[in-house]
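Hi all, long-time lurker, first post. I run a small reading group and we've been trying to get comfortable going from sequence to structure in the token notation. Rather than ask abstract questions, I figured I'd post a concrete chain and ask someone more experienced to write out its structure so we can walk through it together at our next meeting. Sequence below, copied exactly:
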Amino acid sequence: MLVARSYRALFSKQVNDLVVNPSLRYNSTIFGLSSGFGKCGVAVIRVSGSASRSIVQKKTRLKPFPEPRRALLTKIFHGKTNEMIDRGLLLWFPGPNSFTGEDTVEFQVHGGTAIVSAMYDSLASFPDTRIAEPGEFTKRALYAGKMDLTEVEGLADLIHAETEAQRKQALRQANGQLSCFYNTLRTRLVNAIASIEAYIDFSEDQVVDDSVLSGAVLKIEEVIDELKVHLNDNRRGERLRNGVRTAIVGAPNVGKSSLINLLSQRNVSIVTSIAGTTRDIVESHYDIAGYPVILADTAGLRADTDDVVECEGIARARTYVECADLLLLVVDASRIGPIDRMDAFIGEYIQALGIEKHLMSRILIVLNKCDLLDNVTLERLKNNTTLSCLSCVSETGLAELMERVKVRLEQLCGNPSVESPTISQERHRFHLKQCLSHLERFLDYFKETTGTDRDLAIVTHHLRNAVRCIGKITGAIETEEILDVIFSTFCIGK
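-- Answer (accepted) --
Happy to help. Here is the structure in token form:
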């Protein structure tokens, strides 16, 4: 609590300083606790900016100055009172070869509240030094060209990853694999624009022939095809990042609440013999086979109820079902009737629940209460590959059900270890769609016109807009790249 109060007081004061003197935001040296708040064995305090070297000298009094990227155990003193604060490790990262591109130092001290508070007080006493704003170290790395926007977003996702699959996807993005794909597309478009502008400016002088124009259009068509494939990913990356919304649905008293309690190994939902016990959506988050899953217990679907509250619960359940990625349809095994009519029974059951046909592909059938069946019937049902036999009471069949859920999750989210980088942010998808729209407008114009009817000088703005759309994803800013490509590729003016 003490360090939290010290942090708030310092941060409040320095926010006021930034308002009065905005230049401090960019010229000041920043510091922050990289290891998180609370008592712990080791606290890592990072400092970045031009004052980092003098901070090291005054706080450690080391001679000679520490070697770069080599941990050194040393006494750490208060910058103002000269009292010793602690004995800890120091790591020196001179710019530009640091995370932020600036001179950076990390102090690894004991994680006691008083020690961290004293370090904060000491660092704040240096001129033009302030507490870092949220994400400011990464922001400085972005400005220094150490990362682009997709890598920054990947790093944030990596920090917040809760499952193995999320970690793998975020790590690939943080390491620049998505950035590499987008930058490659952008470079190809810039080259195509350069070729078209060279054709516009120099075709009459026969410096550039018609093959240059046709080659540029071919490149644009290839980029369009790749963008369509990339966008047609069934939102696997976004689903993996945000979690697979999974609704447990079925008629009243078929065991929906028992199933979510079994999967979570705790009493998430109330289980009674009274039909309509569950009235609202009960959500819970899980890691299933490395994939993030948002499980939702829903109200039993039926039409014959006059209970106002239950009717509202059923309406909410139907709304949730519409937006769910996966539906665990629970069926009471004691009511299935003749096995020969199993498929017909399931069809009638789904129809009676009012589940729309377009949701059929999302359904995984769970036949619950299989402990009530005789062995012969149970064995015949197990041969049916379209359903999973389960007893929530004895937990029989749980492993088989989880294996089927895992297979379905792999289909919904993909495998980030082997697949090409996928779209993980709605922001990316929006700009890619805009990019594709601009490219298709250019191509439509090119195909609809011929010869002198074409005004390529005007319509090329669609290509420039497409390049800007990709630049908005990565954070790249277009300057004189196109002119540079023209001169280096065609040697015009030689």
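A couple of things your group might point at:
Residues 1-8, 17-24, 489-494 have pLDDT under 50 and may be disordered.
The longest strand covers residues 84-93.
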